[in-house]
């Protein structure tokens, strides 16, 4: 038992030994790829700078129509339950009418 444990410990310790021969860098078979299209200055278009040339963090350069459209969309979604309320009331009335006439459609005896 002790010999087996000692052999198991010695077998795993070989992973911590430094290799004798230094590893050489692999030689490439082909040259590194190069870009065919030159860099586009899109990042410069996205940056907003002040008069001194410093970036203005938090500045938004959005079209003028975005804010009013977002406001109308927010108000429209807030009014959605108010606009759908008559439909719910009609549904509740229809359920009440069906209970009065004892509608048995779709129910098995």
Automatic annotation (TrEMBL):
Keywords: Membrane, Signal, Transmembrane, Transmembrane helix. The chain crosses the membrane at residues 65-85. Residues 1-15 form the signal peptide. It comes from the Eukaryota. This is Photosystem I reaction center subunit VIII. The lineage of its organism: Eukaryota, Haptista, Haptophyta, Prymnesiophyceae, Prymnesiales.
């Amino acid at each position: 038992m002790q010999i087996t444990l000692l052999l198991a410990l010695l077998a795993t310790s070989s992973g911590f030994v430094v290799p004798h021969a230094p590893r050489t860098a692999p030689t490439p078979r082909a040259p590194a790829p190069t870009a065919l299209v030159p860099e586009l200055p899109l990042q410069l278009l996205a940056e907003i700078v002040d008069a001194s040339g410093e970036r203005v963090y938090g500045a938004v350069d959005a079209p003028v129509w975005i804010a009013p459209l977002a406001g109308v969309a927010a108000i429209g979604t807030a009014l959605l339950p108010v606009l759908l309320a008559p439909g719910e009331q009609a549904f509740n009335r229809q359920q009440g009418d069906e209970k009065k006439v004892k509608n048995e459609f779709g129910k098995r005896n």
